[in-house]
Amino acid sequence: MPLIVQDYSWTQSESMLYISVPLKGINPGKVDVFATDEYLKVSFPPFLFEVFLFEPIDDDKSVAQIGNGVVIFTLHKKNEGIWEQLSLKNDDKDKLKDIRLRAVLKAQEKSEADAKAEAARKQEEKKYALQSMMKLEDEERTKINKIKEEERERVSAEMEAWKIKQKQEAEKEMSQRKQIIIDEEHKKRKPNIISVSKSAENKGTVKHGCQNPSIESKQVTLPAPRCSGNIKVKFTPRVFPTALRESRVDEEEEWLKKQAEARRVSSADAAELDDLTDEERNPDWLREKGNKLFATGNYLAAVSAYNLAIQLNRNIPALYSNRAACHLKLRNLHKAIEDSSKALRLLTPAVPDNAPARLKAHLRRGTAFCELELYTEGLQDYQSALKIDPHNEAVQADAQKIRQIIEGSQEEHVQH
Q1: What's the CA gap between 370 and 405, in Å, rounded?
Q2: Whether this model's pTM surpasses 0.90
Q3: Pfam families of this UniProt entry (predicted)?
Q4: CATH number assigned to the domain with residue range 3-88, chosen from the 4 options 2.60.40.790, 3.30.200.20, 3.40.50.2300, 1.10.730.10
Q5: Could you say which DSSP state residue 279 is in?
Q6: Which residues make beta-bridge pairs with 51?
Q7: pLDDT in tens, the chain (416 residues)
Q8: 52 has which bridge partners?
């Protein structure tokens, strides 16, 4: 039985009511306050303060303050006036029981209404955040398209100017060549003039001379042909530190070949997505976009980015692994397991280059299994992760916790 608090005090005015309840040295963190328009209760075990108010109060405007070893209620009366007493008489227990029951029902209804209002507010905030993000993305896309259009116009103008300049230079060179040909033809057709010199009386000497004016021919100097040659390129050989009998050259080459194939987008998939921009056709750009959205907590938008990237190229394991992380946040546990398994299938053969990616995929699938209470399957993935990184203390601690859960469930089953 709780101890009823009797040493409380109260004062009132025409519109206000003040009640002071001592806490008897109890920690304020253990105090539970329950109040409606006609019922007050303060529970701090083993003590209990309960009062059935003489008249109703305005519960929305009233407040309760806890501190300095006392609970102080500041209550607003619904109807102004001086009360004859604080609480109703305890004679009619059925009436008091009904008041208590109504108070509980009102509190439940108010709690449900507050929860619905809070859910609606959060939904509106999410909707507003999504609309804002879509607006920002549209503005960014418009800005990028504007920059691309301006750059395209600038390059087109430069190309037109270069074509005009080339045409003018070609016309000038052709004109010079025509002038040279005309001058040479004119030089060939002009006859020699025989000049007769008047000499001495008995000497009749005929002097032949050429009276051709000098014609300067303009020569065009052409550049010398370029010399041909070969450039030798030396590639650094891939060196494996292990012995030849333990070398993983074949696995490395197979993994590199798969990575090269994964970077090539099939033309059939690209043809189905003609309405996308150049950036949106790039799976790597979409993956970075999804990573940024994941970092901001917008997991649904991140999943959409990874979905489009996977539609363009289904052979990139990082896309499935990152989408599995989003599904974990969204509690889509079966989808997280499916994407992690696809990532692990693409991350074969197991080579040092893809070890970090395999570690993430195992941990994400193991976490999803544990969330579904499939602890045995989850422990297998954590053990696979420890084989990749045996010195990871966080993974070791998580694996130990899973073992303890499995052992505890087994003991309970044996006891039953």
Answers
A1: 10
A2: no
A3: CS (PF04969)
A4: 2.60.40.790
A5: G
A6: 40
A7: 778 888 888 888 888 988 888 887 778 778 888 888 888 888 888 888 888 888 888 888 888 888 888 888 898 888 888 888 878 777 677 777 778 788 788 878 888 888 888 899 899 898 899 888 898 999 999 999 999 999 999 999 999 999 999 999 888 888 888 888 888 877 776 554 444 344 444 444 444 444 444 444 456 677 777 777 777 777 776 555 555 545 566 677 777 777 766 666 544 444 455 566 777 778 889 999 999 999 999 999 999 999 999 988 888 999 999 999 999 999 999 999 999 999 999 988 888 888 999 999 999 999 999 999 999 999 999 999 999 999 999 999 999 999 999 888 755 544 44
A8: 39
**Are 180 and 162 spatial neighbours (Cβ–Cβ below 8 Å)?**
no
User: Which is it for strands 47-52 and 3-4: parallel, antiparallel or unpaired?
Assistant: parallel
The set of long-range contacts for 42-51, using a CB threshold of 8 Å and a minimum separation of 24, is 42/5, 42/71, 43/2, 45/2, 46/2, 46/3, 47/2, 47/3, 47/4, 47/5, 48/2, 48/3, 48/4, 48/5, 49/4, 49/5, 49/8, 49/21, 50/4, 51/19, 51/86, 51/87
Phi-psi region of 148 (alpha: psi -120 to 50; beta: other; left: phi over 0): alpha
Cα–Cα distances in Å, from 313 out to 118, 267, 351? Answer: 41, 10, 22
Q: How far apart are CA 375 and CA 371, in angstroms?
A: 8
The 10 Å CB-count burial string (b at 16+, else e) for 130-144 is eeeeeeeeeeeeeee
What are the strands of the beta sheet with 3-4, ordered from one edge? 3-4, 47-52, 39-44, 32-35
Residues 6 or more apart from 350 whose CB is under 8 A from it?
251, 358
Cβ neighbours of residue 358 closer than 8 Å, sequence gap 6 or more: 344, 347, 350, 388
Amino acid at 31: V
Q: How far apart are CA 76 and CA 5, in angstroms?
A: 23
- Could you give the CA distance from residue 416 to residue 409 in angstroms, rounded to a whole number? 11
Judge if 3-88 and 281-415 fold alike in CATH terms.
Answer: no
> Distance between CA atoms of 369 and 378, rounded to whole angstroms?
5
Domain-by-domain residue ranges, the chain?
A: 3-88, 116-185, 281-415
Which sign, positive or negative, has the C-alpha torsion 115, 119, 122, 124?
A: negative
